[in-house]
Amino acid sequence: MVTIVSEQIQSQPVCIVVGASHAGVNCAFELRKQGFSGRLVLIDADMHLPYHRPPLSKAFLNTPLDDAPAPLKAKSAYEQADIELFLGAMVTKVDAKENIVSFNKGGSGNAENGYSIKYTHLVFATGASPIIPPIPGLNVAENCLVMRNAKDALALKSLMHAKRENISNLNIVIVGAGYIGLEAAASLRKAGASVTVIEREERILARVASESVSNHVARIHQENGATILCQRNVSAVERDTDKGFQWIVCDNGERYRADAILLGVGVRVNSELAQEAGTSLHRGAISVNTHMQTSIKNIWAIGDCTSFTHPLYGENSHIESVQNALEQAKVAAKNIQQISVADAGDAAPLQNYKAIPWFWSDQYNMKLQMVGLPVNADCQVTRQESKEALSVWHFVQNKLVSVEAINSPKSYVLGGRAIDKNAFIDKSKLADPSQSLADLL
User: Fold this and answer.
1) N or C terminus: which one in the chain shows less Cβ crowding within 10 Å?
2) Are 126 and 274 contacting, i.e. CB atoms less than 8 angstroms apart?
């Protein structure tokens, strides 16, 4: 094995970040911004230069086939920031006792590609992976896809491109009506494909949105030609060898032709490396405190892979969003630098994570935005501003905790400010769209 163990470890710190999506990349650059002068290593299994992920299920699907995902940073930016970027590299072992990370560059098992680097700080930004449900026949299905990274999006875009002359005959079945599945459905319908969305719950977005928002989004999809089917469980994938057709079979006997299947039933946290290192987990996610520290000194975790303490939502909070990834990256970077400075004799208090979460989704001409989490909400007020615009306000007694907004940016912005300031809102007036939000808040 070719081993590269940092010779600089004695004189300056070494930080290794595992995972080069939004959390990992922003943590690395924030470290440099905060004045971290040690060696900085960023490792990721993806071969692509780190890129923006939200567009993959949205506008990216309707771009030219040879377009690459939009990069988070130019390649030159990593060189200028002196960040060592190892792409297509698989971490094979984390030795928390010796503070060593081992990985194979290029993802191969070739011993000549083996590296080991000794770290002062290790950051897990490993994200999550799509769940593949145990549906009979799924393992041999044709064009069975997920939507998590550039490879997934490019595979779907390639299929659309191959059928571009007759795309209306391209039948795509999406299993799972969460945000990713619905965003992909909107992009596919825009391109002209036939889309059927199958959801086992009573309504779409059942786990992440209010009933008012779910119903509005479902209506827009149906008006744009997508078929939305709820309270269906997929029981099998079958193939008609005579006709060459593939079918999704539901447990009620319904069958739907599927030239391609897109799975969007949820994700599981990539916590295997952290578990191997000995860090504490909660329901499969990496447990961190308000500083983004794991249970092991000098090992940190950020982004979708974490279970953390939030001042508003309590212990074991878990949020999968770009905004959460970016905010946790900033906190971890600042605290790593604080500790590095403290080791030099200039101690300073560590920063706490306290950002109010927000999310967004683009589907057709809908802009869905959400700020805060409706944790323990016992009351909600729906404000219907027009046929195409509404907002839903969630309260715990008289305390506003979350706002969902569709084509209502003012509700989203002012609602976020009200949550931050713990402002009182007259709920009876809030439901009246003739009342000015600015006056109410």
Assistant:
1) N
2) yes
